[in-house]
Amino acid sequence: MIDRSHNLPVVRQARELGISRGSVYYLPKPVCAADLAIMRRMDELHLEFPFAGSRMLRDLLRQEGIEIGRQHVATLMKKMAIEAIYRRPNTSKPAPGHKIYPYLLRKLPVVRPNQV
């Protein structure tokens, strides 16, 4: 997108594209070797225990002698795009076949205590 050999300055190209100038010059830091080893082991553990979240993965890694905190595990999980598989609440969907009752007080003005 940004062509550094173009006659138009990089600042102007960034403005035309609608991106920040800092993101043009940003170079991501490479992941250190220790984190890569932890991420590899976390991937293996995630395949074995897909329901394990950051706390459980932290405990499993600590049992293997890898001292790591829960927030670091959660950060690496986000970087790897893995998340625990568990049942989530589904309270917003009505069950099929259930009757939806009308709200009877919608147009009733409440003007005194204990009226409703």
Q: Tell me the strand percentage band.
A: under 5%
Order of helices and strands: HHHHH
- Outline the low-pLDDT stretches: none
Quickly count the helices.
Answer: 5
Largest sheet: none
Average the pLDDT over all residues and give the rounded result: 92
The level of helicity is: 40-55%
* Structural class assignment: mainly alpha
Task: Work out the count of structural domains.
Answer: 2
Distance between the termini: 63 Å
Shape: flat
Quick one: how many beta strands? 0
The gyration radius over C-alpha positions equals: 27 Å
Protein name: HTH-like domain-containing protein
Organism: Novosphingobium indicum
InterPro entries: HTH-like_dom
Pfam families: HTH_21 (PF13276)
How would you describe the overall organization of this protein?
This protein has helices spanning 10-17, 21-25, 33-48, 54-63, 70-80. It is flat and about 70 Å long. The model has no long low-confidence stretch (mean pLDDT 92). It folds into 2 domains: 1-28, no CATH class; 31-85. Helices cover 43% and strands 0% of the residues. With 116 residues, the protein is an all-alpha fold. Helix 4 (54-63) crosses helix 5. The longest helix has 16 residues, at 33-48.
